[in-house]
From TrEMBL:
One of its GO terms (cellular component) is membrane. SUPFAM superfamilies: alpha/beta-Hydrolases. Gene3D superfamilies: alpha/beta hydrolase. The lineage of its organism: Bacteria, Pseudomonadati, Pseudomonadota, Gammaproteobacteria, Halospina. One of its GO terms (biological process) is acylglycerol catabolic process. PANTHER family: MONOACYLGLYCEROL LIPASE (PTHR43798), MONOACYLGLYCEROL LIPASE ABHD6 (PTHR43798:SF5). This is Pimeloyl-ACP methyl ester carboxylesterase. GO terms for molecular function: monoacylglycerol lipase activity. It holds the Pfam family Abhydrolase_1. Residues 66-300 form the AB hydrolase-1 domain. Signal peptide: none annotated.
Length: 314
């Protein structure tokens, strides 16, 4: 065999092995891919004990002001990483796995109602020595953020709904609300990989690229937790419009508010923006074109620039 062929084999065989491992044993690549993505946003993983929960979180960036980003139901902290990238040079970032989700503790008998989550968030931020922060959330995270602002307005520099918040009764019924009304138990719980694929199509206009090992990991995690997720889903349905019932109180507290709501959100119809415009007229409310329920994932840079503009205008 010629030296040229030997050289080609020396290059080709390791590469072929790597490709085979990537597709056949994707679990080997999950942590390297996750850590590399976090590093690009100057974020690193930490954990802290808060009461009877271990809370995992990402922290990084630089700046005098702190942004706390709260994910939605059945989501996790890494869903914010691309969104955080253009913000990390100018802001200190804290991105937790909300208790009961992601890597944070989920206790079988614990309550994960919004009121309980607000108290855990308060204890978490106190443990980290945080004072006033900019609080932003998506979906469930938006509902928790709003309730936190209602209970602790002195701790909030601004409040942002990055994607539709849970807690607004949109004038036009959403597709998810129609599915629930028809008897479907929980459209955001996947009990198979096929249902996970369908859920991704439901959440996005265009599903963002996710490397195969990570996509498989997310799918397996969602399916493995399906039964447990149903309990948390039911808890989220208690007093579903608590936020809307207290918008006038939020207005009186003069907390600056930003809303970024996807025009093609199938979870919460974009007509909900009208409710926020009516009750929080001093806020900045924007409907994002060609966007679903998770703008920080579907259009991370554009969404981050809208958020930066809002922060700089305060």
């Amino acid at each position: 065999m010629s030296r040229k062929r030997i050289g080609l084999l020396a290059v080709f065989l390791p590469l072929a092995l790597l490709v085979a491992l990537y597709w056949l044993t994707p679990g080997l690549f999950v942590q390297p891919l996750v850590q590399a993505n976090r590093a690009l946003s100057d974020l690193s993983a930490h954990q802290v004990e808060v009461g009877d929960h271990t809370i995992h979180y990402l922290e990084g960036g630089s700046g005098a002001e702190t942004l706390v980003l709260l994910h939605g139901i059945f989501a996790e902290k890494d869903h914010w990483v691309e969104f955080a990238r253009p913000l990390s040079e100018d802001y200190h970032l804290i991105i937790p796995d909300i208790p009961g989700f992601g890597e944070s503790t989920r206790l079988p008998e614990a309550s994960y109602h919004y009121g309980d989550q607000v108290q855990r968030l308060r204890a978490f931020l106190e443990t980290l020595g945080q004072g006033r922060v900019h609080l932003a959330g998506n979906s469930m995270g938006g509902g928790i953020a709003a309730r936190y602002a209602l209970e602790y307005p002195e701790q909030i520099q601004s409040l942002a709904f990055i994607g539709a918040p849970h807690g607004i009764d949109s004038p036009t019924q959403s597709e998810m609300e129609r599915r629930l009304a028809s008897g479907e138990e929980a459209p955001l719980i996947a009990e198979s990989h096929e249902e996970f694929d369908a859920m991704m199509d439901f959440l996005f206009v265009d599903v963002p690229y996710v490397p195969y090992p990570l996509y498989q990991h997310f799918s397996e995690h969602a399916v493995s937790r399906a039964e447990s997720n149903k309990r948390l889903w039911r808890q989220q349905q208690d007093d579903p419009f608590y936020m809307q019932h207290h918008l006038d109180v939020l207005k009186a507290q003069n907390v600056p508010v930003l809303t970024l709501w996807g025009d093609q959100d199938r979870i919460f119809h974009a007509s909900g923006v009208q409710v926020l415009e009516k009750h929080l007229p001093e806020g900045e409310h924007r409907v994002m074109e060609d966007t679903g329920h998770l703008p920080m994932m579907e259009h991370p840079w554009r969404t981050a620039e809208f958020y930066r503009s809002f922060l700089e205008s305060r």
